[in-house]
Design brief:
2 domains, 7 helices, mainly alpha
């Protein structure tokens, strides 16, 4: 499929029902995290967002309280259908997974003591880390079009990684500090382009 450019997204959800079913499908695929799935589904398959729009919306969804993908779903639903769209997307993200989670919880309570169940859960941690890494690498291409410039984006990414992974600073402080600096730099760059 051709790569999306930096312009408008080539498509959009046609109805609130489509929003509900799309986000239900996303949520049901999201074992261990949905970032990889949501990027592939919304950008590459459905083409509701360009890669650049996805990166920008994901950044906003991450700094809002609550689960990132739920925030993103509500933003997309609200953008196209207002409050009813946001609620449809929210219901899609929560209804089927909640039912499935309750069933799994009942089953897990019966099997939790088995060494095979514990080993399976540990193995899934490696898979989840791989999914997150692969998605991050796919999204790096969108930084070429970022107003801050690829070098500055790379610098902020490296600083964020060091602060969280190596120095183990709290995420809230990293977002507040580096996020504020990144926003200020982007604002400055946008002012230069506009002026």
């Amino acid at each position: 499929m051709p790569e999306s450019g930096t312009g408008e997204a080539p498509s959009h959800p046609r109805s609130r029902t489509e929003l509900f079913t799309a986000f239900t499908w996303l949520a049901l695929q999201g074992f261990g995290g949905v970032l990889a799935v949501v990027q592939r589904e919304l950008v590459e398959k459905r083409r509701w967002l360009t890669r650049e729009q996805f990166v920008e919306d994901w950044a906003v969804a991450q700094i809002m309280p609550g689960p990132n993908v739920v925030n993103l779903a509500m933003m997309i639903g609200g953008r196209h259908f207002g409050l009813p769209g946001a609620l449809s997307a929210l219901a899609g993200m929560l209804v089927a997974p909640l039912v499935l989670l309750l069933l799994i919880a009942v089953l897990y309570s019966q099997l939790a003591a088995l060494p095979q169940a514990q080993a399976a859960l540990r193995g899934m941690g490696a898979v989840a880390a791989g999914l997150i890494t692969a998605t991050g690498l796919k999204l790096v291409a969108a930084l070429r079009h970022n107003v801050m410039g690829l070098g500055v984006c790379t610098g902020f990414a490296a600083l964020t990684f060091a602060a969280i992974a190596l120095l183990r600073w709290p995420l809230a402080w990293v977002l507040l500090g580096l996020g504020t600096l990144a926003c200020a730099w982007a604002w400055r760059q946008l002012g230069r382009k506009g002026g």
